[in-house]
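HUMAN: Would you supply a protein with fold tokens?

ASSISTANT:
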Amino acid sequence: MRTVRLSSLNDHFDWLKLAKEVEPLFGPMTYNPIFCEALRQAILDGNALCLTESDNNERNELFLGGIVISKEVNEILWFAVAQHGRGQKGGTVLLTEAMKRFDHMRPIVVTTFDKPFAFVQRLMNRLISSVRYRVEQGIGTLKRGYGFSRMRYTGLTKGNMEFILTAITFNLKKAALMVRA
């Protein structure tokens, strides 16, 4: 049975094994005392969730992945699924559980890769997140509603013209809907 639960210090070794597994993607972590202490503190503060799988007698737990969040800042700080847990929707389960713990009235921030954002970068990210959301929403609509996932024409000039014409069409339809309302 698969379970998402708050991590305890008993899971610390499993977290470090997971970090070691993803180091080729994100850089060295397991021998970094700052990372190890931050992970330990996240576990103690109740900000580390893990996905485990246990057999019927629940004696042996298999660590499948984990996510570290900051409820105060509404941020996903670290997220990984072990190789043996991938392809089984483990990441989706962890993200869903983490999302339940956030304040949905504020933007959710995701820290990526091994370089944490400075305070100014976090502030800028929060300021532009609402604008970024609207832009990405429009591009998503172009992809779904207008089949704009691939270019029909080759070459930068023709591709640019295709995008401009599609965006004009999109904006004209949006303006027509606004006038009607």
